[in-house]
Structures are given as structure tokens and as C-alpha cells.
Amino acid sequence: MDKFTTLTGVAAPLPIVNVDTDMIIPKQFLKTIKRTGLGTGLLAEMRYREDGSENPDFVLNKPAYRNAKILVAGDNFGCGSSREHAPWALLDFGIRCVISTSFADIFYNNCFKNGILPIVVSPENIEKLFDDAERGANATLTIDLERQEIYGPDGGTLPFEVESFRKHCLLNGLDDIGLTMEKAPAIEAYEKKLAERPWA
């Protein structure tokens, strides 16, 4: 998993409440267990028309937001089923940070496990961030995880909270496997000790 330290990029506004995981990655894209290639299916029902062509009115299809790295979203983002393909799709598209006033618990946890930083802010602050994100190509935000601050295009700063263990994992690029590998020397020592006791 890639480390998350600081992130600077265009923020795309998605002021829709209750965006569920089926909207994030519709069911027809769930036939794979690979984490790559899902970016094309991200928010597909809004991004594409029935004939498969792009919907030019959808935010991620607009030239200014095609390479967005940050998503500023409405309340209760990631609700619905627990599909891990949802953060995979965001990450494959290039989104490394989602900012909202609240997230569904399972989606929130899955984000951290896949190298995405979900940030919870107040309703007042999300409105400021939506205003920033509406600036198109000038909608650049910087996320500093170490300092736990968001820097706006006009130099404003918004603090955010993140649990220390999750912060440690993102800063060091540690998913569940990486965390286990950190303990490899202790595990090997324990296994060696067990091998010396064949009755165990």
C-alpha cells in the first residue's frame, strides 16, 4: 500500500447525500477480485449515458476534474453494502482522499485499509470546501496527514481529526498484511521456540 503523507490535487465536488456503495461501483463491475481496472466503473450510473457515452454534465467528466485526487462529498458517503470494490474503484480512478460530514462505518474502515484517507468535517466546513471545489482547475487542496490539516486554494486552513493508529498505518503505508509483517521477527522467534518443543 502506498504511503499517505501529503496530498495536493484538484478536489471534485459531489454534493449528493447518501451515495451508497452500489452507486460508487455498480454490481456489474464486481466480477473481479483484482483491485485494478475498476476506475472506469466509478460512479458509472452518473458518469455514463445508457448508450455508454460519457455524460458531459457529470463532474468527473469535466476537463477540470478528470484527474481529481480528492472528492468532497455529501453526508453519509459510502452507505449500503460492504463491498470493498468501492474504495478500490476510487483508488483506481486516482482518488486518495474523500471529505464528507459522515461516512458509513464499513466503507470508512475499508478506505484506511486501502490507502484512502476519509476525512470527517463539520457541515460549515464542508460548505467551505464545496465552494473551493467549485473552482474547477483552481480547486486545488492540500491534505497534510502529519499535521492533520487541509489547506485551501486561498491559504485557509481547516484542521481534522484522525485516530492515531489509522494515521500511523497510512503514513507508513501499512495495510493488514503490512502490519503483520512488522511483527515478522517476533513471529519467527515464537515459531523457533515452538520448534524446540515438539510436544507443543
Structural commentary:
With 200 residues, the chain is α/β, with parallel strands linked by helices. It has helices at 21-24, 44-47, 85-93, 105-113, 123-133, 164-172, 176-182, 184-195; strands at 6-14, 70-73, 97-100, 117-120, 140-144, 149-151, 157-159. The chain is built from 8 helices and 7 strands. 32% of the residues lie in helices and 16% in strands. The protein has a 7-stranded mixed beta sheet. A hairpin with a 5-residue loop joins strand 6 and strand 7 (157-159). The longest helix has 12 residues, at 184-195.
Number of strands: 7
Mean pLDDT: 92
| Backbone CA Rg | 19 Å
Shape: globular
Assembly status:
single chain
Termini, distance in Å? 36 Å
The string of secondary-structure elements, in order, is EHHEHEHEHEEEHHH
Task: Report the sheet with the most strands, covering strand number, pairing sense and barrel closure.
Answer: 7 strands, mixed
Q: How large a portion of the residues is in β-strands, by DSSP E?
A: 15-25%
